[in-house]
Q: What sequence folds into this?
């Protein structure tokens, strides 16, 4: 699979010792560390995490609070960069990328769904969904149609001109999901997407994720609810910044 | 993101904080308004000095008994009174016969004032002056009705008058003035022409005057001496020859008056350049001060805009994080905030310009005619947009450099 050699002392590998075979893995993380400098003390939020995600997988990441789940997701989503280690997404090596290249990856490869939705409050649902397409440089007409279609696919075709404060929590999260998917990313990332929703709405959102997975999307969901994790086909457990378990459940 | 899209975004952001945007712009508005008003006043004042006070257009020069320098102090005035003789028609003929570079030259007499009567209508304190017929050509006098004097009318000292628009309107309301008569000092004059309306300057009508043929003026007002002394007005054969024509006339005057080499002129020549120079030397320092005031207002305006943009960046850190998480590049964020501050500032400039235009109309009605030159309008909006860009540069740079994850955490 990989010509990959783990170093005993956890030093990062150089690019030429680690080359994912094209087409096999969407995401490859090797020995990823994230260290925060808190005054004189070093806080290791991630300590040498390595794993791969293939196209079409549905992965849940679980773990106790403070274990490093969000930190990991932000790294996968290229919102943050690792202190050490190597990260490949869809054949691009992320570690050495400039800010603009990272912006392009975030735009083209990743759809991110946040716990608190992160919609622009002043903009309509439609405009929120259009945002990734705007930054992709798509022309207004085409963009409009695509955003409309994305909203229709999350059953919000009749709410396009609503602003976030005119939508329910579940509807807001569906807008966010439509936005995450509108530019056809390689992977959909969701960090506790149901954390701010009630149980019934959570179930609806999770059903939507299952539908999206069935349609061929690659999905990684962070959660600390086991019944949500059970819907995934693979569960990665994290504890204290390390992968404790990585098992296929379906 | 393209231009119109970014512009729309900027307008939406400004519109969502209408009151704040307006208050932010006050400094800018005041600065631009003050700047424009000062500029248009300056323009109006220059025109006024050139054309009205000096009484000559930009293409002609005058030969007079006294020069500007003669009025320096009481000693120079006394000396000039002694040395500088009145100009004579003989001297005018001398120049006319010999000058090669002069196109037209004619005599005028200094004005007096008189009372005009027609039936029951009386007009007091009207400026009366005498001119040779050729002055109509030299000064390019704009005739509304009738015509200027003929040589024959001047030579025969005929009692004909060329009058200002307001005189015509007051003395002959309801009908044409041409061919009608009025009296001055009990003597009747026939109107042969009316000048086009010139308007008011410093609240004073420029249309309250009577021009007579210079000989008529001399014959009926007590001779062309002292307060009715004559002076010459001339034009050059071409604008290029203007300076040479002035020098030629000066030389001919010196020859006629038999001045020794090195001896001072005992007459004065007034050119538009000399008038402009005098005007600038008097008003220059004043204008520097009044230009500095709007300059300071603009600077304060810029600082206020910068401040509000810093506030906007802080307020919208989360928005910046969201946009970055969706693929906005640094340049996109930078552009977004730069457009916003430039648009904000240009709106201020435009409002300032409109205010200045309104003030200009009021000033024109009450003081002197002012116009805002088109280039000044372009400069006003351009300068304010540039000020906006400069003021927005630092805040926009701060926004563009925000770390996406840090920005997303903000609230
Ligand atoms: N910006 C930061 N500066 C310093 N420490 C941080 C920072 N972000 C996260 N941490 C620390 O890193 C560790 C992992 O945090 P993370 O947010 O990834 O946890 P999590 O697994 O998502 O927890 P939760 O389930 O509560 O969301 C925590 O100990 C946290 O305090
Ligand atoms: Mg978390």
A:
């Amino acid at each position: 699979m990989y010509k990959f050699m783990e170093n005993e002392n956890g030093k990062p590998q150089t690019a030429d010792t680690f080359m994912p075979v094209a087409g096999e893995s969407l995401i490859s993380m090797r020995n990823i560390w994230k260290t925060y400098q808190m005054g004189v003390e070093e806080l290791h939020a991630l300590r040498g995490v390595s794993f791969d995600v293939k196209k079409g997988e549905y992965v849940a990441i679980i773990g106790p609070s403070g274990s490093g789940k969000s930190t990991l997701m932000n790294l996968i989503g290229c919102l943050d960069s690792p202190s050490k280690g190597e990260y490949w997404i869809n054949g691009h090596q992320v570690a050495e990328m400039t800010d603009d290249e990272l912006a392009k990856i975030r735009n083209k490869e990743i759809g991110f769904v946040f716990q608190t939705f992160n919609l622009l409050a002043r903009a309509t649902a439609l405009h929120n969904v259009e945002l990734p397409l705007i930054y992709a440089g798509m022309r207004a007409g085409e963009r409009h149609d695509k955003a409309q279609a994305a909203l229709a696919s999350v059953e919000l075709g009749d709410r396009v001109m609503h602003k976030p404060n005119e939508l329910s929590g579940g509807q807001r999260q569906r807008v966010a999901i439509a936005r995450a998917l509108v530019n056809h990313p390689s992977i959909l990332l969701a960090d506790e997407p149901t954390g701010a929703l009630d149980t019934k709405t959570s179930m609806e959102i999770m059903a939507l994720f299952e539908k999206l997975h069935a349609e061929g999307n690659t999905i990684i969901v962070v959660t600390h609810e086991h019944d949500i994790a059970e819907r995934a086909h693979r569960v990665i457990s994290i504890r204290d910044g390390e992968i404790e378990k990585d098992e296929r459940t379906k | 993101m393209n231009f119109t899209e970014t512009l729309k975004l900027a307008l939406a952001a400004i519109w969502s904080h209408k009151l704040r945007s307006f208050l932010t712009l006050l400094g800018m508005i005041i600065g631009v308004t003050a700047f424009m008003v000062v500029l248009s006043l300056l323009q109006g004042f220059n025109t006024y000095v050139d054309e009205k006070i000096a009484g000559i257009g930009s293409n002609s020069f005058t030969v007079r008994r006294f020069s500007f320098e003669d009025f320096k102090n009481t000693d120079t005035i006394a000396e000039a009174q002694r040395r500088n003789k009145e100009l004579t028609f003989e001297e005018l003929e001398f120049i006319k016969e010999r000058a090669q570079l002069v196109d037209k030259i004619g005599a005028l007499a200094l004005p007096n004032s008189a009372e005009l009567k027609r039936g029951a209508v009386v007009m007091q304190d009207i400026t009366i002056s005498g001119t040779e017929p050729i002055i109509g050509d030299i000064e390019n006098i704009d005739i509304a009705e009738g015509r200027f004097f003929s040589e024959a009318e001047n030579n025969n000292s005929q009692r004909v008058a060329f009058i200002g628009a307001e005189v015509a309107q007051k003395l002959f309301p309801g009908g044409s003035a041409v061919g009608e008569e009025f009296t001055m000092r009990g003597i009747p004059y026939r109107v042969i022409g009316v000048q086009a309306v010139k308007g008011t300057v410093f609240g004073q009508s420029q249309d309250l005057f009577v021009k007579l043929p210079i000989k008529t003026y001399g014959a009926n007002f007590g001779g062309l001496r002292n307060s009715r002394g004559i002076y010459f007005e001339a034009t050059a054969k071409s604008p290029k020859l203007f300076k040479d024509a002035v020098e030629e006339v000066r030389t001919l005057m010196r020859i006629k008056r038999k001045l020794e080499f090195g001896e001072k002129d005992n007459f004065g020549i007034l050119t538009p350049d000399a008038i402009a120079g005098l005007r600038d030397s008097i008003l220059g320092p004043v204008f520097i001060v009044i230009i500095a005031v709007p300059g300071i207002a603009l600077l304060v305006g810029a600082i206020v805009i910068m401040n509000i943009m810093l506030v906007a960046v802080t307020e919208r850190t989360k928005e910046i994080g969201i946009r970055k998480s969706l693929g906005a590049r640094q340049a996109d964020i930078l552009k977004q905030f730069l457009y916003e501050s430039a648009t904000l500032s240009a709106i201020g400039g435009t409002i300032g310009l409109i205010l200045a235009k309104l003030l200009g109309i009021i000033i024109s009605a009450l003081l002197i005619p002012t116009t805002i030159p088109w280039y000044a309008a372009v400069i006003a909006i351009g300068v304010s947009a540039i000020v906006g860009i400069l003021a927005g540069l630092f805040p926009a740079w701060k926004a563009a450099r925000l770390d996406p994850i840090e920005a997303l955490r903000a609230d």
Remarks:
- Chain B has a mean pLDDT of 88.
